């Protein structure tokens, strides 16, 4: 069957949780506690499947890969938990003992119970792959693309993590939590195996791997806790997940499948990930002799052969395609234990806030390879603020020259050209196309579709921003990015429209800041501050820009105690 992508619903019995105050660990969300009550709830589900695998994603639970069902053995590769009962407290809420979750492992709304943006890419023909895109955006953001191919029992996972702020972040990033039925505690430098999934990745993809007991998750960490992601830096990595069955103690894993060829025996097993028809199996003995036989393997059954009859004993098995290309080479060995894999290089970035520097200081930083991109972006924003759109465009060009993978820089360059009338009326906005290619779910791009329209608030909220209601904090993220880039008029217009969709407290505070910049509008500012106290929280503020703005507002207006505690760092 071809790859299919479609939406469905999934009903789960869940534990009911309630808020339990704020801590440093949970901010910007409250801690949660169990109430002792349960209820049935229906969740939006996205299904990605082919003839071998069926994947179920839950965008409302952090984009979790809830089920990886292997049709060949009629088994879910993840642990069986029919009740959605939170396990140990997480950094921002709770971790759930089921499935796989990508997290940035920092004090940031990347939680098991949060909604994320989602987009599907359906195959155009029976020979094409299908994909599910998941993304969450804030001061730090992640985007993840899961791809399933026709005729293969392999899932490819591509991850992009970005620091969207102007300063380095020093928390451990890019983590993978996996709950499986049990763990083999078998790892090697290019991958790690549970009892039903092989993770195949290049050496250096992850910094460490912790293999726990059956009730604990497998934890793969991209970076150490001391590592930093520089300002506006983007980190991309990928790995493959290869489900398998019928192989009790895997000793190798790769594109051909997962199998066993242990030093203590003569049995060779292979659970292939795709049909291997008219192939050859070539066996090399310990004495150097070569033996060859035809090979036809289907993913639905485990291939087994006894190599006891090989004179001198078998040492290497090689699989070749009908054309003679090498498909796999397997040496007789155990997987190497690896509590710590070859680490991704940790980088240290000077912690400099470019917003407080002079233009001359920023120009000096353009010769510093660790901060030149941040300096050019700040110079571009200041040029936009004073109406020098051509100068801003030049600065964006310089920033993109050194960091062309930054979708926000492409977006800001395009917005600057639009408001500065630097493009012909019918010119194609190639910068937006580049940004969309790099980050298909970027909320700033959806906001630009609204902002580029003629200014006219209709009777009803604009349908162009309706998708933001699925993840309301995206309204705040876009507003902050507009202010960061000094698109003040755009920010005010966007916030006006956003408040027609969601009455979020931080939007009122951001609007109050924009009004205060104009001067002579003290009553309007006070009114907005008052509205903020009656609006919806969480999420609470957590971005550096939000801290700067609330600090300014607090000098002339009373803020709620919880926000004053956050500004002062007075948390338990």
Task: Write up what this structure looks like.
- Helix 2 packs antiparallel against helix 3.
- The strands form six sheets. The protein has an eight-stranded antiparallel sheet with strand order 10-11-12-13-20-17-16-15, with no helix packed on it. Strands 5-4-3-2-1-6 form a six-stranded mixed sheet, with no helix packed on it.
- It folds into three domains: about 240 residues, Beta-galactosidase, Chain A, domain 5 (Distorted Sandwich); about 70 residues, Immunoglobulin-like; about 220 residues.
- It has about 575 residues and is α+β, with helices and mostly antiparallel strands.
- About 5% of the residues have low confidence.
Notable traits:
572 residues; alpha+beta; Beta-galactosidase, Chain A, domain 5; Immunoglobulin-like; 3 domains; eight-stranded antiparallel β-sheet; 28 strands
What would the average pLDDT be, to the nearest integer?
Answer: 84
Contiguous uncertain segments of 5+ residues: 88-93, 181-190, 336-346
Helicity level: 10-25%
**Number of DSSP strand runs:** 28
CATH class of the largest domain, anyone? Answer: Mainly Beta
Strand order, biggest sheet?
Answer: 10-11-12-13-20-17-16-15
Number of helices: 12
Biggest sheet overview: 8 strands, antiparallel
- As for the number of domains, it is 3
Name of the CATH architecture of the largest domain: Distorted Sandwich
Beta-strand percentage range: 25-35%
């Amino acid at each position: 069957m071809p790859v299919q992508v479609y939406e469905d619903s999934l009903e789960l019995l869940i534990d009911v949780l309630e808020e339990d105050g704020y801590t440093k660990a949970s901010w910007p969300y409250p801690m949660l506690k169990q109430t002792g009550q349960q209820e049935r709830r229906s969740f939006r589900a996205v299904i990605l499947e082919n003839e071998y695998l069926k994947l179920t994603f839950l965008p409302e639970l952090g984009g979790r890969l809830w089920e990886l069902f292997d049709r060949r053995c009629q088994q879910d590769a993840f642990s069986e938990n029919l009740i959605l009962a939170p396990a140990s407290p997480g950094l921002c809420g709770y971790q759930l003992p089921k499935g796989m979750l990508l997290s940035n492992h920092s004090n940031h709304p990347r939680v098991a119970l949060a909604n994320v943006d989602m987009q599907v890419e359906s195959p155009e023909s029976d020979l094409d792959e299908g994909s599910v895109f998941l993304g969450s955006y804030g001061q730090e953001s992640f985007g993840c693309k899961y791809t399933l191919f026709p005729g293969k029992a392999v899932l490819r996972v591509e991850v992009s993590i970005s620091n969207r702020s102007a300063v380095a972040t020093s928390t451990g990033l890019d983590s993978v939590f996996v709950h499986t039925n049990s763990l083999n505690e078998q790892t090697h430098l290019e991958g790690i195996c549970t009892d039903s999934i092989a993770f195949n990745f290049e050496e250096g993809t992850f910094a460490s791997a912790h293999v726990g007991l059956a009730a604990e998750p497998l934890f793969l960490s991209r970076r150490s806790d001391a590592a930093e992601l520089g300002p506006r830096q983007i980190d991309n990595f990928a790995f493959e997940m290869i489900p398998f069955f019928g192989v009790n103690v895997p000793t190798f894993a790769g594109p051909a499948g997962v199998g066993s060829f242990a030093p203590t025996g003569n049995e060779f097993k292979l659970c292939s990930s795709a049909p291997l028809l008219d192939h050859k199996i070539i066996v090399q003995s310990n004495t150097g002799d070569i033996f060859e036989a035809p090979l036809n393997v289907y993913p639905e059954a485990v291939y087994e052969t006894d190599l006891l009859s090989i004179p001198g004993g078998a040492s290497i098995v090689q699989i070749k395609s009908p054309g003679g290309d090498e498909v796999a080479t397997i040496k007789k060995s155990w997987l190497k234990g690896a509590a710590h894999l070859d680490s991704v290089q940790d980088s240290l970035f000077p912690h400099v806030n470019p917003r407080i520097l002079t233009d001359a200081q920023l120009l000096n930083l353009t010769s510093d390879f660790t901060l030149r991109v941040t300096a050019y972006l700040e110079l571009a924003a200041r040029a936009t603020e004073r109406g020098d759109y051509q100068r801003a465009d030049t600065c964006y060009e310089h920033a993109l020259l050194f960091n062309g993978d930054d979708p926000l820089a492409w977006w800001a360059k395009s917005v600057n050209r639009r408001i500065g009338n630097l493009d012909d009326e019918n010119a194609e906005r190639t910068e937006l196309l580049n940004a969309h290619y790099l980050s298909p779910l970027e909320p700033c791009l959806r906001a630009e579709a609204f902002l580029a329209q003629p200014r006219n608030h209709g009777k009803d909220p604009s349908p162009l921003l309706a998708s933001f209601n699925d993840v309301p904090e995206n309204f705040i993220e876009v507003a902050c990015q507009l202010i960061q880039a000094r698109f003040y008029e755009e920010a005010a217009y966007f916030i006006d429209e956003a408040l027609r969709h969601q009455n979020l407290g931080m939007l009122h505070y951001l609007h109050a800041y924009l009004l205060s910049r104009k001067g002579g509008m003290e009553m309007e500012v006070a009114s907005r501050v008052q509205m903020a106290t009656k609006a919806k929280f969480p999420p609470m503020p957590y971005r550096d820009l939000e801290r700067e703005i609330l600090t300014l507002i607090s000098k002339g207006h009373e803020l709620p105690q919880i926000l004053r505690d956050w500004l002062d760092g007075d948390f338990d």
